[in-house]
Design goal:
The protein has 13 helices and seven strands. The protein has about 325 residues and is of the alpha/beta class. It has one domain: 3-Layer(aba) Sandwich (Rossmann fold), CATH 3.40.50. It has a five-stranded parallel β-sheet, sandwiched between helices. Helix 1 crosses helix 9. The radius of gyration is 20 Å and the shape is globular. The N and C termini lie far apart (about 60 Å). The structure holds iron/sulfur cluster and zinc ion (ZN). The site of zinc ion has 8 residues, from helix 13. The site of iron/sulfur cluster (SF4) has 9 residues, from helix 6.
Length: about 325
């Protein structure tokens, strides 16, 4: 049996193609924690005084991040926020109970909210309204905009210094490539870990797992014996087609050239640095004339208000 390349004692059970090395399960788990810690330090994502609002979906990535974060940060300074989208067959009571059980076990307070409570509509209802109005938008687009709004609103409500999400390397590189294909350089810059927040209405967002492959979070969750939500959201197949295509292309690239995703992320982090620094000279984002939240340059209503305006219904707030 081959020995672990790190401890040289235990039997290797996993091969990391991006580093060309084989590890035992113990060294693998330590490596994941080490790389998350390194990423937090590299970009000064938060320090020990900061209060963190962690988005916990109930999927594997959010449980892995929670498991690592409580070792790196005082659990009494972490609050978990779970957002129930309101999708038939996907948001089940037992999943919410599991999130509560896990967070309680780590000594982390949790807040459970739903899109219905926040805006007056479940995601299913929004999708139905959109279909009726002939709006050709993927459910994931509505879902993403509304969840981001809820996360930021609650971060302000609980006086959090940072919002923390469990995006992994695969998610990050997909987003980078999508923004490149769309030629959206501003969005590409704003996604950089050193980008400033361009409005006082925003709570700074950080993604400590952005350097960890999705297969690595899956393996970590498996070794830890986590049970997590495996039911897929039924809207997953209606996901924006560009993201789905990019995901497949990137998987193929990674198969042929192990470590490709990691190298793309490293290049992105380095290449954009100068232009990211210039963002600090930009004026604050304008505010939405309807709700007073921030919106993009050149716009007078925000994406959230736009969704409900287009659907022809009033949102709760
Ligand atoms: Fe939301 Fe799309 Fe994910 Fe479903 S698949 S939870 S609609 S982002
Ligand atoms: Zn608005």
């Amino acid at each position: 049996m081959a020995k672990c390349d790190v401890c040289n004692v235990r039997e290797a059970v996993v091969y990391q193609p991006h580093y060309s090395r084989k590890l035992c399960s113990g060294c693998f788990m330590e490596d994941i924690k080490f790389r998350i810690k390194k990423q937090i330090e590299k970009y000064n994502m938060f320090d020990k005084r900061h209060k963190l609002l962690l988005g916990v979906s109930g999927g594997k990535d959010s449980f892995v991040l929670l498991d690592v974060l409580v070792e790196l940060h005082d659990p009494s300074k972490i609050i978990a926020l779970t957002i129930i989208e309101g999708v038939e067959g996907y948001n089940r009571d037992e999943e919410v109970e599991r999130v509560k059980r896990y967070t309680r076990g780590y000594g982390v307070d949790s807040i459970i909210v739903s899109l219905k409570e926040e805006f007056g509509y479940r995601l299913d209802e929004i999708v139905r309204l959109a279909l009726k109005s002939g709006i050709d938008e993927s459910p994931c687009t509505f879902c993403g905009v509304l969840r981001r709004r809820v996360l930021n609103t609650y971060a302000r409500m609980v006086n959090a210094d940072r919002t923390v999400t469990a995006h992994n390397l695969d998610d990050e590189v997909q987003t980078i490539v999508i923004n490149m294909i769309r030629g959206d350089y501003q969005r590409l810059l704003r996604g950089h870990p050193l980008a400033p927040k361009l409005s006082e209405r925003f709570v700074h967002k950080v993604k400590p797992m952005r350097e960890i492959y999705e297969w690595e979070t899956a393996l970590y969750a498996y070794i830890k014996g986590f049970t997590f939500q495996e039911t897929e959201c039924p809207y997953i197949n209606l996901r924006p087609t560009l993201r789905a295509k990019i995901r497949d292309i990137l998987y193929g690239l990674e198969r042929n050239s192990p470590g490709a995703l990691y190298r793309i992320l490293m290049e992105y982090d380095e290449m954009l640095l100068d232009d990211v620094k210039k963002l600090y000279d930009r004026p604050s984002l304008p505010t939405c004339r309807l709700c007073g939240e921030a919106t993009s340059y050149g716009r007078d209503i925000c994406k959230t208000c736009e969704i409900f305006e287009n659907l022809g219904v009033k949102m709760l707030r």
